[in-house]
Amino acid sequence: MSTDIKLTRRGFIVKSISVLSTVYFIPDLFAPAQAAKPLHEEVKSDTKWAMSIDVDKCASGCTACVDACVEENGLYGFDRPETDSQWIRKLTIKDIKTDKVKVVPMLCQHCENPPCCDVCPTGASFRRVDGIVMVNQHTCIGCRYCMMACPFKARSFVHENLTEQVTTAPRGKGCVESCNFCVNRIDHGIPTTACEEACMKEGHKAISFGDLSDPNSRVNKALKIKQNRRLRADLSLKQRVTYSNI
Q1: Rounded to an integer, what distance in angstroms lies between the CA atom of residue 175 and that of residue 143?
Q2: What are the angstrom distances between the C-alpha of 85 and each of 69, 72, 138?
Q3: How do residues 52-99 score in pLDDT, each as one tens digit?
Q4: How far, rounded to the nearest angstrom, does the alpha carbon of residue 23 sit from its chain's CA centroid?
Q5: pLDDT value at 115 more than 70
Q6: Topology (CATH level 3) of domain 33-244
């Protein structure tokens, strides 16, 4: 009887140590998010991802960029426009002085001084050294401070339970999300975002993406052809998304 009790206690202790060991290896959920690739090559500060959008080439009524983003990231909706996630959307703006109407693709502007990161209490909103602003779904607590801080309304909140997801873009109810420059494609060596690729296939070529450090990149070629400007430049956010003919 005594021996059985000792063995039972020993077994309990062994199992307890095993559980504690498992807990020990769980990463600190409140540690600052790391800006490193999950693949063999690390993110480098020498790379500076950016996007130029020529508003004059953006066709009214065309939704190719939006549709491509939805497919790439599994952003299926619930027929609730007010709450469904939109990582890129098309805005129609009108100049009150000239009555000229423009169609402007709006997405995360990937600021060098991102206000979303400044207000995030857990570090879930972070900026990689290559300029891509992202959200860590594991540390986002859904406070939505970042949504309030973003002057471009570029972030969405997941209100619904999600049953279908693509493995390259994990999402979760109660988390904030936004355009991440198709980071999974970029990290796997695909040099285009889904929206740029779709726009090129439609023949519009309004979106040019690439590395500012590469003089031959599509974005640098677009910047040389036409003068670009940042939206709300007065905020000094230094966005990596710029627009021409706006």
Answers
A1: 8
A2: 11, 13, 18
A3: 999 999 998 999 999 999 999 999 878 887 788 999 999 999 888 898
A4: 30
A5: yes
A6: Alpha-Beta Plaits (3.30.70)
